Amino acid sequence: MFSLTQTSARQREIIEVVLSNGWEYMRGLLTAGKTENPQIPTPEVLRNILIELGPFYVKLGQLLSTRPDILSPNYIQALTALQSNVSSVPWKEIEIVLNRQLSKPIKAIFSNIEKKPIAAGSIGQIHRGILLNGEEVAIKIQRPNIDKIVQQDITLIKGIAELVSLTEFGKNFDIPKLADEFCEAIESELDFTKEASYTDTIRNNLSSSIWFDANEIATPKVYWDITTEKILVLEWLHGKPILEADLSIPKSLKSTEERRKEITTLLFRAFFQQIYVDGFFHADPHPGNLFYLNNGRVAIIDCGMVGKIDSHTQKILIELLLAIFDLDAQGCAQLTFKLSESDKVDNLSRLKSDYEKILKKYHNLNLSQFNFSEVVYEILQIARKNKLKIPGNLGLYAKCLGNLEGTARQFNPSINLFDEINPLMTNLFYRQLVGDTPLQTGLRTILDLKSIYLKTPRRIETLLDRLSSETFNWNIRLRELEPLRRSIDASANRLSFSIVLGSLIMGAAIISVGSSTQQLSIISSVLFASASILGVWLIISILRSGRLK
């Protein structure tokens, strides 16, 4: 609560913006909202609110668009193309940032910088420049004081998350943790060296491939010697966004349609390698981030939003791909649960039934008409409905596939998705079986088989020895057998006491009949006394048990 009191001015501003976008929503929130199903603005109203609140909330909305496990499809669609309507910062203010960040005067590094930005975003703006050696570069410069504004809003968001966590909705989705994830992602965007590192990683990963010619893919080079936390300097790539480009340049013997098909295949292979092989992928391949260059190469730019997937998750996602194309609801249910961070699922059969419902509408479709990314989004939505906690990186995974497929369909409407994915799937399964080095994988498999072969006979022999001896224990626990066991033990004990009691009486009688000395007479009396005591105890025990009849 203390953190909220520090941002009271910002709170007032937020309330004014929210009220200006519709009192009906606020009235519903205050009078009819339920903690387990809180009311939120319509997608269009929410988008307008985020834009008016400024850069931080625009980024927050863009990150929310990567979480189909939290929001429904209409909200995802509204937030995916969210762009802040921000004006560019005057050159005088940008020049101050450059002078503070650069180790040398501007003129000692750049022969020229265009003062008018070519693009302005919520975090920074991009200027075109020329180095002293004549190389053209793109200079991304952070907006002045944006870090202070973001920190203020982060404090406010975390304070609100603490309040929301008290509701049923907040508990189901672990809102404080979600807020921390979003805030951490936004803070990382304030450090341009991280984006530079992401760019380098993707560039290096795509520099070689068995699926495509690496020379056909371009990612801008990073100028590390002049890149700082607030300045990112990248190689300038000459070209146009892929949907606006003239594919006849450079001149080629191939038709435009043939070139479209080649580029579509190239994009699918480049992104499938990033996701399913490298485990590090560009998460926002919308048309503005994919360029067709004047030299005929395809460029992937703006690597600020990336996703990471470990090898275990990669294997499950590959199996999920196959389950989706096979319309296997049972497989989708089991694999989604394996992907989730939940310890259990309330009702696996209901989860399967939900998948059957969404997969039914694809039964009569040709695979060329199959909207793969839509199915992935729906799968994550069902996980949300069944209260399965899905890792945040799977939202980026779904966003990447959605943007990739959407861009591909705009660029090449005649695309057959199955034709693009099928050979990659085959190769991915082959890689799982034999790995990148078949010889090494084969030798490792032989060693594993040898280990199993050597261990198995000994284990079977041990099992047989235990079965034929009294040392073998069956660790079986059945609640219904426990009372029965106690009852049998009690009956056996009583039977034993009855036998002992009878023996004592018979022994005493024999000794008494044949006794001729005082000593034998004493022994006989002791046996009778013992038999009497045991007999009385046995009768009392039976009467207490209530099982006399």
TrEMBL record:
* SUPFAM superfamilies with a match to the protein in the record: Protein kinase-like (PK-like)
* A Pfam entry, by short name: ABC1
Q: Which InterPro entries match?
A: ABC1_dom (IPR004147), Kinase-like_dom_sf (IPR011009), Prot_kinase_dom (IPR000719), UbiB_kinase (IPR050154)
Q: Does the keyword Transmembrane apply?
A: yes
Q: Where is the Protein kinase domain?
A: 112-454
| Keyword flag Methyltransferase | no
* Keyword terms, alphabetized: Kinase, Membrane, Transferase, Transmembrane, Transmembrane helix
What GO molecular function annotation could you give as one example from this UniProt entry? kinase activity
Family to which the UniProt record says this protein belongs: Belongs to the protein kinase superfamily. ADCK protein kinase family.
Q: What is this protein called?
A: Protein kinase UbiB
Where does this protein come from, organism-wise? cyanobacterium endosymbiont of Braarudosphaera bigelowii
